Amino acid sequence: MVAAEDGQLLFREDWKVSEPSLPIDQSHVSHADLVLSLHGPGAFGIKKSHHDWIENDPYYVWSGSCPGAWAVSLRHGSQELDLSGNSRVRWRSKQSGFRQLRLILKLADGSWLVSDGSDGVSPDWRVFEMTISKLRWRKLDIIRVTEGDWVESADLTRVVEVGFTDLMTGGASAACSRLDWIEVYGKWGAPHEN
Fold first, then answer.
1. Which of 2, 86, 133, 148 is deepest in the core (most CB within 10 A)?
2. What angle do CA 91, 192, 181 make, to 5 degrees?
3. Backbone torsions φ then ψ of 45, nearest 5 degrees
4. Domain boundaries, the chain
5. How far apart are the C-alpha atoms of 103 and 89, rounded to whole Å?
């Protein structure tokens, strides 16, 4: 259970129990209020994966077939997120090769950030948690999905999208990132300015 000072669970995304698909799309999102976006030159290679013959295999996002750098983001349909203070993100993932799964954020001013903190290689699925205030950020070119300069100060009270990337091309099962679910803890911000 999360203490009140750590923020409330704003959303959790567990991908729908459905057949594998390339690329993943909105029909695979289980949370009714979340909008999925794919980014980068490798976006069309982001797969919704699952293997029936593997016991307890989750329904997950897989980057192994991405022909270029890629990113996945989720946007709440009506609310901005306040991820200041003790906000955090938890996910269950599994990386192979040199892949390091990183958190990305889109701010209300349209800028994108990518975290210095990352979730590295694991021989099996594991839960990983990041306290957002403890991360450093670089600018993220969301078109190419490449990191830029360090950001000295970011307004984390107005976040409109949360996501993940490893900033790399997929390399099949030997060099890829996998994400089973993601949870975002914080406070609700203002309604979106649509």
1. 86
2. 15
3. -100, 5
4. 4-187
5. 8
CA dihedral 9, 10, 14, 16 (to 10 degrees): 140
Spatial neighbors of 20 by CB under 8 A, at least 6 apart, are 47, 48, 49, 50
Task: Give the DSSP letter of residue 192.
Answer: P
**Distance from C-alpha of 34 to C-alpha of 29, rounded to nearest angstrom:** 7
Q: What is the pLDDT of residues 118-142, one digit of tens each?
A: 999 999 999 999 999 999 999 999 9
In angstroms, rounded to a whole number, what is the distance separating the alpha carbons of residues 86 and 134? 9
One DSSP character per residue, 5-65 reads GG-EEEEEEE--S---BSS--GGG--STTEEEEEESTTGGG-EEE--TTSTT---EEE-TT
Q: How far apart are the first and last CA of the chain?
A: 34
Q: Is 114 exposed, middle or buried (0-12, 13-18, 19+ CB in 10 A)?
A: buried
Q: Which helix (H) or strand (E) holds 49?
A: strand 47-49
Residue given tokens 């290679």 in the structure block: 45
- Other residues' Cβ atoms within 10 Å of the Cβ of residue 75: 20
Regarding predicted confidence, which is higher, 56 or 8?
Answer: 8
From the CA atom positions of the chain, what is the Rg in Å?
16
DSSP-based three-state secondary structure for 136? coil
CATH (residue range 4-187): 2.60.120.430
- Return the exposure string of 152-183: e unless at least 16 CB atoms fall within 10 Å of the residue's CB, then b: eebebbbbbbbbbbbbbbbbeeebbbbbbbbb
- Enter the DSSP assignment of 77: S
